[in-house]
Amino acid sequence: MKITNIRAHILEAKLSQPFAYSRAWYDTRTAMLVEIETDAGLIGWGECYGPARMTAAVVRNIAPWLIAEDPLRTDALWQTIYARLRDHGQKGVVIQGLSGIDIALWDIKGKHFGVPVHQLLGGAARREVQAYATGLYRRKSGDPLKYLSEEAAGYVAEGFRSVKLKVGFDVAEDAAVTRAVREAIGPAVALMVDANHAYDAVAAIRLGRLIERYDIGWFEEPVPPEDIAGYRAVKSALTIPIAGGECEFTRFGFRELFASHALDIAQPDTCAAGGLTECKKIADMSEAFGIRYNPHVWGTGVAIAASLQLLAVLPSHTPTSLAPVEPLLEFDRTEHPIRQAILTRPIEHENGIVRVPDGPGLGIEIDRKALSRFDVNG
Ligand code: CA
Asked: Rounded to 5, what percent of the chain is helix, strand, coil?
């Protein structure tokens, strides 16, 4: 089997209501899908997290190197691409582009052997994954104490047993909002907070001390990703587990985070940190360091499916316990017109639980009509 063509699809959709996290407002959702064709008629799909036009440019520049290559050589092709770009792209959009290509190659591999990707990655440790609701963003109008409490209670009513709140706006306001959301969801539902690295270590520790009493599942990206010393300071000052890693790349990048004990929970994005090939390696490393692995997920159904294939094979966080702590799926509940529309069968949750797709490859089929509706090139 040989690769015959590689396409980069830039997708865009306007939102009905803008929403904000600590560093920006969103009024549009974008996505970048990679489509790889073969001479056997098999097509693989992948997704890149990151700025769509930039990752598309990376994929289009890599594409000629892959024509006539055997798509089943996932590890070897990863190494070839990485080695050719090593001097210029050890992190960031280059690795994000490589990630989408790698995921598409795994989709082809699974389809070639007629099995889901998780079977080729080592076999399913679980068939379904507990999802947590990512939402609770800021809106243009209204009282955040009120609308965030209502939104959080809605997720609990849907069956979610954990929710994640955006913080990083102002320490006092964050503490008030955290308290309101905790009161709205009750003591039995897990509550995580995510600052998207809006704070320095001083402010992050101040916030952490104010919200420790609300039983916080983890404090995500308290400080900028480059500030490993800041991560360590926050981690040693607080009893809340510290999470991060959606802005880190490859096993080489995570080696630094793990060896410096900066994190309790690693969150590589499968569509950014190096694809399925690399994230399996990062997951094995995180286990060796005793660090929990809960992937960051922010994309369309392709990204969700790829994340689920990896989640299926991850070890439990407490492997010898009778009540293991299982890895969680990040399930984005914000408006995303593209997310499920491009799948012929959407990946949905039931009572906060998502089944791992068990069809060949990623286990999804792309709805081409929907795809072209969002494709900026038609
Ligand atoms: Ca995050």
From this structure: 40, 20, 40
Residues acting as catalytic residues: 296
**138 CA to middle of ligand 1, Å?**
15
The CA 296 to ligand 1 mean position distance, Å, reads 7
| 179-234 residue pLDDT tens | 999 999 999 999 999 999 999 999 999 999 999 999 999 999 999 999 999 999 99
> 295 C-alpha to center of ligand 1: Å?
10
Q: What is the extent of the structural domain holding 11?
A: 3-114
CATH number at residue 284: 3.20.20.120
Q: What whole-number distance in Å separates Cα of residue 365 and Cα of residue 343?
A: 6
Q: How far is CA 142 from CA 147, 150, 176, in A?
A: 7, 12, 15
CA 257, distance to chain mean position in Å, is: 18
SS3 label, residue 289: coil
pTM over 0.85: yes
Q: Which two tokens stand for residue 61?
A: 């520049």
In contact, 222 and 195? CB cutoff 8 Å: yes
Pairing of strands 128-134, 3-20: unpaired
220: left (phi over 0), alpha (psi -120 to 50) or beta: beta
Q: What angle do CA 362, 83, 113 make, to 5 degrees?
A: 25
Do 177 and 318 lie in a common domain?
A: yes
